[in-house]
Design goal:
The protein has 16 helices and 12 strands. It is an alpha/beta fold and 383 residues long. The protein has 2 domains: 3-267, Alpha-Beta Barrel (TIM Barrel), CATH 3.20.20.100; 277-383, Fumarate Reductase Iron-sulfur Protein, Chain B, domain 2, CATH 1.10.1060. Strands 3-6-7-8-9-10-11-12 form an 8-stranded parallel barrel, surrounded by 6 helices. Strands 1-2 form a two-stranded antiparallel sheet. The longest helix is centred in the last third of the chain and has 17 residues, at 366-382. The two termini are 42 Å apart. The protein binds iron/sulfur cluster (SF4) (2 copies). The site of one iron/sulfur cluster has 16 residues, from α14 and α15.
Length: 383
Amino acid sequence: MLYTDFKGEKISKLGFGTMRMPQVKAADGSDVEDIAHIERMVDIAIKGGVNYFDTAWPYHDGRSETIIGDALRKYPRSTWFLADKYPGHQQLEEYHPEEIFEEQLRKCGVDYFDFYLMHNVCENSIGVYLDPRWALLDYFLEQKKSGRIRHLGFSCHGEVDCLRRFLDSPWGKHMEFCQIQLNYVDWELQHAKEKVQLLGERGIPVWVMEPQRGGLLSKHSAELAFRWLMEIPGVATVLSGMSSEEQMRQNIDTFSSFRLLTYDERRSIEEYSDTVFSRVPCTACRYCTEGCPQHLDIPALINACNQLRIPGMAFTPVMFLESLKAEQMPDACIGCGNCTHICPQHIDIPSVMEELADRYSKSVKWSDICRERNKIAKEQKAK
Ligand code: SF4
Ligand code: SF4
């Protein structure tokens, strides 16, 4: 296993993300976690040198924390790192940081977290993290001071401006690491390249999430997608949401050595990236925006449309669209055509706006996901 030296800690380059653990059908037809299988995966992970385990409040409808805590308990506490996250992205009036944090420690069966993150800082949630009413920064700094959090960081699904805003806020100087969605498709599509650069300028190492873009890239080659990531400077660890023993073994094997991609391997990645979806060829030159009578952020909307064209994993563009006002949405386009005349790529922008509005109307909304997760959390608490 390859390791990263982080402030004197030896962190495995491969981490176990516990949001897609294996499930089986229960007698009543519902999906339940396959505990024996998960325990075997953890055993393989530990034996293979994986020492980083990542969970969160909403994963597996709130069951992930308990399951991974139980599976790790037989190993000495000093031999593994556990990361958990504060669910500010689904904040409710009745959420009290202290209550949630205590509950997370209890569920995981630990008295400290090695790594603790503010979950999903994005355009929709940044207001919660910056709102003095919740006093989240003060509370978590206190927990760090008392040793119940060893390292404080955040995950971010927001755009580059949102990431910069958070780093420029009072949180910035306390953030020791940042988890972003990074893979060879999102390098440009979700502007991961700029995010890595920005974090590098601030001296903040990168934790990678969605290295296979929800399994999409593994259809070509999981190994190549991981090796592509290993070449990115600043990447400290790669969290993979593994669902089987076989995946765990294969990924441990990939992370056992560092091998540069060959020319042919790099080309095959590029070719696959091009076939994953047909992309609107916007270069974000912004020639079109000045003449738009509706003042639409056309390149940002086209980018959202490109993301929605990729199968699965629609929540990031959906979250972005949900953060817009009605007059900024694609259906505010009046089809005047001012933009089309000026676009050097000859993009039929009104058609793209129409397509985006249609794709968005058919997408599951992030706010609905949060509402459902909170409902489940409340029901579990009431039991
Ligand atoms: S066609 Fe739509 S996007 Fe283009 S300039 Fe007119 S209103 Fe703006
Ligand atoms: S002019 Fe064309 S290429 Fe440039 S930002 Fe607008 S849509 Fe994109």
